[in-house]
Fold this protein.
Amino acid sequence: MKKEVVIYGAGGHARVISAMVKDQEREVCCYFDDQGEVEDVSIVPYQDHIYPDALMVLAIGNNTVRQRLADTVSHGYATLIHQDASVAADVATGEGTVVLARAVVQANVKLGKHVIINAGAVVDHDAIIEDYAHIAPNAYIGGGAHIEKGVVIGAGAVVSRFARVKTNTVVPPLTVV
C-alpha cells in the first residue's frame, strides 16, 4: 500500500479526509483545488505530473463534481476506511470510496466507486450502493436496499429494507423511504 496521498478538494470534507489519512500513518503530499486564487502553497490547481505515483482521494461532497473529476484526473485512487468504522470482511468496495468514523457496513454489501459513507451511517446486509453516492451522517440503509448512482441520502434519513432509490435522487434529511 502506498503511503503518499493527494487530496482533490480543500473544503471541510477534505479536512476530514486529511485527518483520516494522517491517522493511518500516511502522508498528505498536497491538495488540488481549481477554485481560483489560493494563498496556501500546498493547494494547487490539478496537474497530473504532481506526485504522479501518489494515490488520490476526491474529497468533494458534490456527487456530480466528484464524478466529473473521476472522469478527468489521471492519478490512481485510494480507498479509505476509518479506524473507528466497522466494515464486514466480505464488503466489496470500489476505488476511491471512503467510509468515515463510526460508520457500520454489514455483511455482503457492495459499495461502488467514489462512494461516501459518512460518519455514523449504517448500511445493513446485502445492500448495494452504486458509484458516486453519498450516505450522509447517521443515515440508515436497510438490508437489501439498492441505492443507485449519484444518490444523496440526507443526514438521519432511513431507507427501508429492499427499497430502491433511483439515480441522482436526493433524499432529504430525516426522511423515511
Remarks:
- The two ends are 39 Å apart (CA to CA).
- DSSP finds two helices and 20 strands in the chain.
